Amino acid sequence: MTGSVTVRVPAKVNVQLAVGGPRSDGYHDLANVFLAVGLHDEVTVRPADELRVTCAGPDAAQVPLDHSNLAARAALALAARYGRDANVHIHIDKDIPVAGGMAGGSADGAGALLACDALWGTGASREELLGICAELGSDVPFSLVGGAALGRGRGELLTPLPVGGAFHWVFAVADGGLSTPAVYAECDRLRGAADIPAPEASAALLDALRAGDAEALAAAVSNDLQDAAVSLRPSLAATLEAGRGAGALAAMVSGSGPTTAFLVPDAAGARKVADALQSSGTCRAVRVAAGPVPGATVLS
Ligand SMILES: C[C@](O)(CO)[C@H](O)COP(=O)(O)OP(=O)(O)OC[C@H]1O[C@@H](n2ccc(N)nc2=O)[C@H](O)[C@@H]1O
Ligand SMILES: Nc1ncnc2c1ncn2[C@@H]1O[C@H](COP(=O)(O)OP(=O)(O)OP(=O)(O)O)[C@@H](O)[C@H]1O
């Protein structure tokens, strides 16, 4: 067991996030349409005397380096399942915004799991790896699979979706993060006693993905957590407005936020909206990415 393994893992945007009422286990049933986009973390594992995590990148200071890190939890879970010790050095090159609603921690969990699996040669099946991913977090299975998928249950039960072309996005990164449980709780609070229908994927949205039709997708995107994220972070309204004003086809909060996502027609449209957002002063940083892209992939 020598050498090192590096895995590349994408961020996600939720093109539809339909949220049901609260379940007795504290989660919410979802119809969660994930799209993997070309912003990546790289996770490298190599044998070491003990389990330790290091992280580099612009947001590295916000990433926990103890065993609460999802990458460390993934190594521990795989080691326990296959009777190994989890003595690895996990290094994360982090490019995905932290606590931004783009599944950065989930990406690192899936990446470390795949990297340790390759390093240790466990022979785990894809189903076994997906099962461990689901124990780590609701978004983690999608980070492994990538592409586009419908997530049912709490988001972990995935059905791959066909996509007929590339979709171009601009992401506006906000200052600070939002806590995912706090955003779900705010969604429940805003809904009050209203009857919540069972979440369903939109047929128009699935058609738009299949056709690779950005305008049709823009007309169909929705995020039931958006009002909650804006309620907790009212300044997001100005960011959304700045992107709309610059000609984005659609403007939405990414997952639980506070990153906002802007669907644009093509790479030139992305540059225009990115420049406008940058100069609007309504966000900390602007990123451009297209999707779908593959899920966690071993590089070496
Ligand atoms: C907002 C999304 O990113 C959209 O993809 C996900 O639903 C969040 O997925 P995640 O970060 O992997 O979340 P988990 O680590 O599984 O759960 C964190 C917390 O988020 C809330 N949570 C999460 C998923 C879900 N379907 N219902 C929930 O209510 C719960 O309070 C849970 O305790
Ligand atoms: N490897 C990791 N990278 C980043 N955050 C991590 C990691 N492991 C654990 N965390 C914790 O998870 C919290 C959420 O970070 P993350 O970047 O995953 O948020 P997110 O993108 O909003 O997640 P999601 O979209 O899945 O809800 C962080 O505040 C941090 O405390």
UniProtKB/TrEMBL annotation:
Enzyme Commission number(s): 2.7.1.148
Gene (UniProt): ispE
Residues reported in the UniProt entry to bind ATP: P97, V98, A99, G100, G101, M102, A103, G104, G105, S106, A107
Key words, A-Z: ATP-binding, Isoprene biosynthesis, Kinase, Nucleotide-binding, Transferase
Any GO MF annotation of the entry: ATP binding
Top EC class of this enzyme: transferase
Transmembrane segments: none
Entry similarity comment: Belongs to the GHMP kinase family. IspE subfamily.
Active site residues of this protein: K12, D139
Domain of life where this protein originates: Bacteria
Species per Swiss-Prot/TrEMBL record: Streptomyces olivoverticillatus
Domain GHMP kinase C-terminal: 206-280
Taxonomic classification: Bacteria, Bacillati, Actinomycetota, Actinomycetes, Kitasatosporales
PANTHER family: 4-DIPHOSPHOCYTIDYL-2-C-METHYL-D-ERYTHRITOL KINASE, CHLOROPLASTIC
Reactions the enzyme catalyzes: 4-CDP-2-C-methyl-D-erythritol + ATP = 4-CDP-2-C-methyl-D-erythritol 2-phosphate + ADP + H(+)
Chain's role: Catalyzes the phosphorylation of the position 2 hydroxy group of 4-diphosphocytidyl-2C-methyl-D-erythritol.
Protein name: 4-diphosphocytidyl-2-C-methyl-D-erythritol kinase
Record Gene3D superfamilies: 3.30.230.10, GHMP kinase, C-terminal domain (3.30.70.890)
GHMP kinase N-terminal domain sequence ranges: 69-147
